Amino acid sequence: MKHNGLLYLMITGILLGVFCGWFYGETMLSVGWLGDMFLDALKMLVVPLIISSMIVGISGLGDIRNVGKTGLITLTYFMATTGIAVGIGLVLVNIMKPGVAVEMTVDKIPENVAGKEAIGITDILQSFVSPNLIQSMANMEILPLIIFSLVFGGVLTTLGEPGKQAIAFFDTVNNAIMKIVHLLMYFAPVGVFALIASKLGAAGGGDLFLAELAKIGKYAWTVILALLVHGLFVLPTILFIVTKRNPLLYFKNLTAALTTAFSTASSSATLPVTIECAEENNHVSRKASLFVLPLGATVNMNGTALYEAVAVMFIAQMMGIEMGFAEQIIVLITATLAGIGAAGIPEAGLVTMVMVLQAVGLPLEGIGMLLSIDWFLDRCRTTLNVWGDSVGAAVVDALEEKWVEKGGDQ
Hints:
Layout: H1 4-24, H2 32-60, H3 64-96, H4 121-126, H5 133-138, H6 142-156, H7 160-184, H8 188-202, H9 205-215, H10 217-243, H11 247-253, H12 255-264, H13 267-281, H14 286-299, H15 302-318, H16 325-341, H17 348-359, H18 371-405
């Protein structure tokens, strides 16, 4: 975004969406198609962007030894920040105890959770590969596309001149996709307005939303407070210590991506905007952004893992089930691993929560208590997911530069 005017229009769109959805309720469902159209246009770009960016990103790392080093740095960052996020969630949920004295009013497993009980770690591992890449593209199953693109791009670097020509082709595709993103963002203010207004309208407007929030408001504030602690203190501290960048300026330059993430509730749909903000506004190297951000949008879920840890503890407190230190360590480990590994499965957030609940023997019926305001918290945690990915791109970029300065492999 070269002009702040578009950013201000996007923020205005969100505020107007909240206002209209709050006061006009279900009437705003009539503008939902505009939001769906904007979201679908973003999703339309995701598959070609993922494939081209991962191929260009992996080939840009050069020596195959750099791939392992960069991958290790990236995975370490993902694991560490996700683990810290879950830890913050657990600390706050133990302090605030949002589930105590809350009456359980749901006695059956929600329909969109039923049938997910059998999914385990082997299903997550199997989701890394696909027997039909075209079907994976159609179903927006991003993880197998990333695995294929990484391998494909790595192999292209070994083919000499023909490989360079193929890489140049995907580089051109990537640049073309980013040009389309520029054009699409002129529609963004209308799109984010319609998404927010229609979603709040579908929830029944401001009065009904407040009524639902009142039932489990302490739980919602616990989640939001934990997200704010991680997003406003932990990630900026990591950014400053590793890269010496100004976190406030970096955040400001990323506002377009964060507002898009809040509006769409999808890290993958936001990916085109995230890459543009990282490269053009924050001057993260193309090599780092094209490798880290597509990977992060799929597997780095700081906000989701934190949310699930708080949700599981809330359900335990609501049902009067004591969760000792050992059980909470299991929650920490399971939520961290699930947040990184489950993105290839449809309704990944729901599936991973089922896995965490089962790991500590809690009933799945408790999820039904959370669904009424989950659409709102989903937007909050997605925004943190995108912020975490973007910080990760800068961190990996800085560590790569330090490696080169010290005479590492190039």
